[in-house]
Fold:
Amino acid sequence: MPERRGITIHFMDGTKMKLDFPKQVEKPSALKLKEILSARHLVAETEGVLLVFPFDNIKYIEAFPAPAALPDFAIHGASIATER
Structure:
């Protein structure tokens, strides 16, 4: 069974969408992440349909598992804390 990956896209209007997909590349790189972010759109094919998500409509994206290769400026080992 192929390794599965997933993202949850959180939109500015408070809605969210989850996508589940197989591992896309054997060796992900920080350069690929930079390419995706500079495109200003997230593009996905799902069940034969092309989905294009403008980053202007996205609040944030959760991706799992986190890629091993992250940009140099990424914060590692963080945890989400509740406000005090």
Remarks:
- The beta strands are 4-11, 16-22, 41-46, 49-54, 58-64.
- The chain has a mean pLDDT of 86.
- The longest strand covers residues 4-11.
- Residues 44 and 50 are 6 Å apart (CA to CA).
